């Protein structure tokens, strides 16, 4: 059975994502350059506390790509800070590693984030092992995705800002690629399905309510060391509700670090602009340093 993806107006039962759903109001990107992940995350959770005060079920989506630690994957301090803030709530943390990274259950079990989750009594799940659901967008794009973000009241996405050799950028929008089934991911990476549409459409199907993006350190040349990526310091932490604005801002930050920036910028803009065109956000934004 294929379920149609509801329009953003129909998503009334779930906490509304992003300020771009509220009459096109320009979103704010919050950022810090002091590189204190825990302090920044705590401040962001305080700023957005009114948005999730009535939420009962939370889903946190880190970036667990492979066995590689940060900056390939989400830094443990960010997850630890959020779980501390949500200590009295029902929380599930989950992701699905890259399909070529090895045994996904073993990668999840050995992740430094597993230790963080265990210390808070929270479950870290392998999304490949969880229930999936077929959905279809108003544009006819079909996907099979995890039901966990679909059934949560509030979803927080925790990407690492970094270069991606296939689509140019891994950031706010690309992080939800981890919701997809192995089959969809394989079809997109082999170009049988359009990966740029896929990145945007999975966000349309299950839009996060808040993004906290670690750019203290980043990866250039590729998204993982095993693919030729090189860790380098960038010195930013970002947060906001609009993934289009966040990724556009992230591209600007990477401009001086990424040696193939022009090529990767062109790649990334394909899915960023598609996401903007289908109403997932806007490149126009304001910034606020905290």
Please provide a written account of the structure.
With 290 residues, this protein is of the alpha/beta class. The chain is built from ten helices and 13 strands. The chain has helices spanning 37-47, 49-52, 76-85, 104-110, 112-119, 148-151, 182-189, 195-205, 243-254, 261-277; strands spanning 2-4, 27-32, 57-62, 90-95, 123-126, 132-136, 142-146, 154-158, 162-164, 168-170, 210-220, 230-240, 285-289. The strands form three sheets. Strands 5-4-3-8-11-12-2-13 form an eight-stranded mixed beta sheet, sandwiched between helices. It has a three-stranded mixed beta sheet with strand order 1-6-7. A hairpin with a 5-residue loop joins strand 6 (132-136) and strand 7.
Write the layout of secondary structure elements.
Layout: E1 2-4, E2 27-32, H1 37-47, H2 49-52, E3 57-62, H3 76-85, E4 90-95, H4 104-110, H5 112-119, E5 123-126, E6 132-136, E7 142-146, H6 148-151, E8 154-158, E9 162-164, E10 168-170, H7 182-189, H8 195-205, E11 210-220, E12 230-240, H9 243-254, H10 261-277, E13 285-289
Parallel strand pairs: 1-6, 2-13, 3-4, 3-8, 4-5, 8-11
Antiparallel strand pairs: 2-12, 6-7, 9-10, 11-12
Helix pairs in contact: 1-3, 3-5, 8-10, 9-10
The strand count comes to 13
- Lateral strand order in the biggest sheet: 5-4-3-8-11-12-2-13
CATH-derived architecture: 3-Layer(aba) Sandwich
State the order of secondary-structure elements, H for helix, E for strand.
EEHHEHEHHEEEHEEEHHEEHHE
What average pLDDT do the residues reach?
92
Counting DSSP H or I runs of 4 or more residues, the number of helices is 10
CATH class: Alpha Beta
Poorly predicted residue ranges: 7-13, 15-23
Task: Determine Rg (CA atoms, Å).
Answer: 17 Å
Please give the largest β-sheet.
8 strands, mixed
β content, as a range?
25-35%
Task: For the record, give the distance between the C-alpha atoms at the N and C termini, rounded to a whole number.
Answer: 46 Å
Helix content: 25-40%
Q: State the shape.
A: globular
Q: Which fold does the CATH topology refer to? A: Rossmann fold
Structural class: alpha/beta
Give the assembly state of these chains: single chain
**Domain count:** 1
């Amino acid at each position: 059975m294929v379920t149609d993806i509801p329009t953003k107006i129909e998503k009334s039962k779930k906490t509304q994502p992003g300020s771009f759903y509220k009459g096109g109001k320009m979103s704010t990107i919050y950022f810090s350059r002091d590189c204190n992940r825990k302090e920044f995350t705590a401040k962001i959770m305080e700023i957005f506390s009114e948005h999730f005060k009535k939420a009962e079920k939370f889903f946190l989506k880190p970036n667990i790509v492979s066995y590689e630690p940060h900056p390939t994957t989400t830094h443990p301090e960010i997850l630890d800070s959020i779980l501390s803030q949500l200590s009295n709530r029902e929380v599930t943390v989950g992701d699905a590693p890259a399909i070529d990274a090895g045994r996904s259950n073993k990668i999840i079990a050995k992740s430094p984030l597993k230790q963080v989750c265990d210390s808070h009594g929270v479950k870290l799940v392998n999304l490949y092992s969880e229930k999936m659901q077929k959905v279809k967008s108003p544009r006819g794009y079909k996907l099979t995705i995890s039901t966990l973000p679909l059934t949560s009241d509030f979803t927080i996405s925790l990407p690492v800002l970094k270069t991606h050799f296939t689509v140019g950028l891994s950031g706010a929008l690309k992080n939800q690629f981890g919701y997809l089934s192995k089959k969809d991911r394989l079809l997109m990476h082999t170009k049988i399905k359009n990966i740029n549409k896929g990145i945007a459409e999975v966000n349309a199907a299950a839009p996060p309510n808040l993004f906290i993006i670690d750019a203290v350190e980043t990866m250039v040349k590729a998204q993982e060391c095993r693919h030729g990526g090189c860790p380098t310091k960038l010195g930013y932490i970002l947060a906001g509700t609009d993934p289009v604005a966040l990724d556009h801002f992230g591209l600007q930050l990477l401009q001086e670090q990424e040696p193939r920036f022009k090529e990767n910028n062109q790649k990334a803009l394909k899915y960023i602009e598609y996401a903007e065109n289908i109403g997932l956000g806007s490149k126009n934004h304001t910034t606020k340093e905290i």
